[in-house]
Amino acid sequence: MMIMCRNILIFVFSLFCISCAKAETLYTKQNLPVKPKGKINVELALKNAVHQYLYMRDKLSGSAAFPKTYDANKKLLETSDSEWWCSGFYPGTLFYLYEATGNDDLYREGVRMLKLLESEQYNSDTHDVGFMMYCSFGNANRIAPQTDYKDILVNSARSLMTRFSPIVGCIKSHNRKPNDYIVIIDNIMNLELLFWAAETTGDSSFYDVAVKHADTTIKNHFRPDNSLYHGLNYDPKTGKIKQYQAGQGASDKSAWARGQAWGLYGFTMMYRFTKDEKYLDQAMKVADFMLNHPSMPKDLIPYWDFNAPNIPKALRDASAAAITSSGLLELCLYVKGEKQQTYLNAAENILKVLASPAYTAPENTNGGFILKHSVGNMPAKKEIDVPLSYTDYYYVEALCRYKALQDDKKNGL
């Protein structure tokens, strides 16, 4: 009997060890550099994306919910209402995919979601109204301009303007205590809505606020090595910095990967609208910081923080990679020579890896999301190693930008 019990214990322990080994293997593979062969098959990547988003549409079944992420353990598509900061990414992705493929089902679903978003044009409680409304209504209006879309976007821009403080020189991000004025680097992405409003209405105040916010960001958010703080807390009465905040980064001294990506993309966008060389220079500084950082993996899918404490076992962040790729594909248009090729090659490499099975989910899985392995908020232990709606949005945007570059090259442009 004792021998039998001992044998059972040995067997159970062996199974436990095998299970741990498999888990460690899966964990390790997620962190190893990926080396996909050949070039990016953009058409295949877009075809997969269309399939996934039609699959997601069917899972939503005409509900009023906006997809956030997918819990693989619970086999649950996690959703939000229209007030969540990510609500604009799902319809925005649908419109990008429609534009790239002509699939009318995607367009109809996008229009359906716009109806659910309309009320957010008056939401002045968040700086994310740019993400929410410009990524959705902005894309819809670009594809098929409508007076209603224009009015909604202008109202959204006005709502965003109410959060600007001339004393601080920035648009407030988070609503905290009365004596706190939090500004995060993500906020620079919302300035695109203001530039659009300035061009559409002729009201220069939208333009002036966008420029002032960007200039204050350059002055205060950057460190000497060109990395970015995630958040700053200003004194609303004096405009002086009270505190540097870690936010979603590993610490207040670390370089949170998605924050760097927001900066790269955001300052590239600033140059697009202003043609001011200082913004182009700032975008290049962020790009060079990221691409040359000793902690950047060879496949250019960054760890969730460049200073994460457990590198090289730290989780990668596909969201930071997707935003970076899309930003680089625009940035390479504004520079020449070696820099242009460096940025284009990096963007191509990132897209190639994201389009590989290491990051692209098989069809009819992943809740309908395209990409796997994003990190939402590591310090808060939320959305860790999961798909995210904004990851898909910037990935599809990058695919569309890359396809446009390919088409221009074919046409000799």
Automatic annotation (TrEMBL):
Residues making up the signal peptide according to the UniProt record: 1-23
UniProt GO MF annotations: chondroitin hydrolase activity
Binding sites annotated in the UniProt record for substrate: 128, 186, 258, 262
One Pfam family from the record: Glyco_hydro_88
Catalytic residues (UniProt): 128 (nucleophile), 186 (proton donor)
Biological processes, Gene Ontology terms: polysaccharide catabolic process
Keywords, alphabetical: Hydrolase, Signal
Taxonomy, superkingdom: Bacteria
TM spans (from-to): none
Family to which the UniProt record says this protein belongs: Belongs to the glycosyl hydrolase 88 family.
PANTHER family: HYDROLASE, PUTATIVE (AFU_ORTHOLOGUE AFUA_7G05090)-RELATED (PTHR36845:SF1)
Protein name listed in UniProt: Glucuronyl hydrolase
